Amino acid sequence: MRAQSTGRKTAGGAAFALFAVLALTLAACGRGERAGEAGDGADPAAQSQTAAPEFASPTLAAIKRRGRLNCGVHEGLVGFAYTDNRGEWRGFDADFCRALAAAVLGNANAVRFVPLTGSQRFEALRSGRVDVLWRSTSWTLTREAQEGVRFAGINYYDGQGFLVRRSLDLATAAELNGARVCVQRSSTTELNVADWFRARSLEYTPVVGANEEAARAAYAREDCDALSADISALAAARTTMSNPEQHAILPDVISKEPLGPAVKRGDEAWTSIVRWTLNALILAEELGVTSDNADQMAEDSPNPAVRRLLGVEGEAGPMLGLRKDWAKAAIEAEGNYGEIFSRNVGTDSSLDLARGLNAQWNARPAGLIYALPIR
């Protein structure tokens, strides 16, 4: 009796065990299928087949339809953007505008210069009044986050300083404790001065001008003891004074001011076109390509980097929606970066500014100018 009872229990246990094994097997198969399905979705090979978005710029299309580049510039800053006695725009920034027009339209003269004050510049970009802002504007986080713009690169490394009368016999900015300082309203200049004096527990009285010109005029009237602005702007302001030799720029540099072209946020392709045109001019100096020898180097140079830059090899231009010789056209229009610098703000100009930080990365002494590779 006990043996029969034990046998029934054993048979029932075996049946239950068999059912459990089958259930677990089916569950495992189900999990395996689901795992396989998830794996298929994350397959790197499948992901790599996703097409890159089309490189197309609405801004470039509008410029081509219009037949003209609208370039925002300073309303009048010697060396950077100003009109000569014939009413022609000249200067460092103006030359970059012409080079960009040559790159995108094949004509350096197909540019309309739009003079803008500091308070107008970003609204002019956002509204589409200008296609690019090449106006001594510092690249800052706040401007990218709040002003609706994107910076395409840096074409001038500057810093803020102080211009004073030599008669004050000042050696450093630390001696300006208690001084009256002229600055431009609603600018990084005004903020930098406040930060610099506060960090050193020094006192000063700000004399605020509505714009850069007003601040310079206040200094000329002796409404203040010092004028604070970017050092390049101070050098330009000094050349316009009746007795430039009576004014000195103090050695102190109180900020970093990376200046460069800005465009409206939302057109990534146009940002790239401006960026790579700037880099082409920088790279041209590094490779020894000038406005005079570009044609000859396109024919004779065995250097692959030169040949790609000048459109002899590769498809850099068409990838940007431009002609193959876009960079060559920009270089021939106004010269390479070094030519533009020397002619407008360097040794061949009235400002006579040293290259300093704006020397090429491989110069002696080295600077910060470094072209991204065109390849």
Automatic annotation (TrEMBL):
It comes from the Bacteria. The keyword Signal applies. Residues 68-292 form the Solute-binding protein family 3/N-terminal domain. InterPro entries: Bact_solute-bind_prot3, Solute-binding_3/MltF_N. CDD domains: PBP2_BztA. The keyword Signal applies. Pfam families: SBP_bac_3. Keywords: Signal, Transport. PANTHER family: AMINO ACID ABC TRANSPORTER PERMEASE, AMINO-ACID ABC TRANSPORTER-BINDING PROTEIN YHDW-RELATED. Belongs to the bacterial solute-binding protein 3 family. This is Amino acid ABC transporter substrate-binding protein. It comes from Brevundimonas denitrificans.
